[in-house]
Amino acid sequence: MDREETWRVITEQRLGLARLLEGLSDDKWEQPSLCAGWRVRDVAAHVSLVGLPPSPGTLPVDLIRARGSLHQLNTMASLRRAERAPEQLIADLRQHAGSRKVPIVSNQRNILFDVLVHVQDIAMPLGIDLPMPVAAAAAGAARVWSMGWPFWARRQLRGLLLRATDTDWSASAGAELRGPIAMLLLLLTGRTLKCTELSPPSQHPSRRTTQCMPRWSSG
Q1: Using one digit for the tens of pLDDT, what is the confidence trace for 68-125?
Q2: Where are the domains of the chain?
């Protein structure tokens, strides 16, 4: 995917999330997401913040408060933003859906997989079917696979050949694990999935593996 297509998908995902959130009851905003330790409102707050990265002047102060941890910095900012009313978070998503602002330590390729995964962090536990664009999911999977921190996908999934069933994408070598590229992207980023979505080709669908999930997670 080129730069323009990447930003188009990011905008569409942000707007799609705003539409999804608009119909949620108050109790669903408080439900756990797939992102460990984060509620639906926390994930929504994080996505709304990505288009509004902190200014260079405030970043050092927040980093000190987070003791130098980028993960903690992200968590602190998201939880603080999550105190806003649901309608404010939805308005933020819509207002800044087309923002191309990028956090200092990131780029549009990271923002792509981040929004793809976080939309599913909210949709899947709520039982909402919100398809992930296949080409975008493949680009996101390739990016995550090429990274180390924070997911360490190559290390965590060592010994497995990951193969998408709906697009031409594969990674690593070993025992084959296959499934839709969206599920593979969620696996790469440490999400808890329905194991029936991923299976070795030698197994009958009714006897798919129950040991396909990694035992780590990250927001």
Answers
A1: 556 656 677 778 889 999 999 999 999 999 999 987 778 999 999 999 999 999 999 9
A2: 3-123, 134-207
Q: How far apart are CA 175 and CA 173, in angstroms?
A: 7
Q: State which amino acid sits at residue 75.
A: T
CATH no. for 134-207: 3.30.1050
Q: Quote the pTM value.
A: 0.85
Report how far apart, in Å, the C-alpha atoms of 7 and of each of 11, 54, 99 are.
Answer: 6, 20, 9
Alpha helices in 39-177 (DSSP H): 40-50, 59-65, 70-81, 86-95, 108-123, 134-146, 153-156
Cα–Cα distance measured from residue 203 to residue 123, given in angstroms and rounded to the nearest whole number: 29
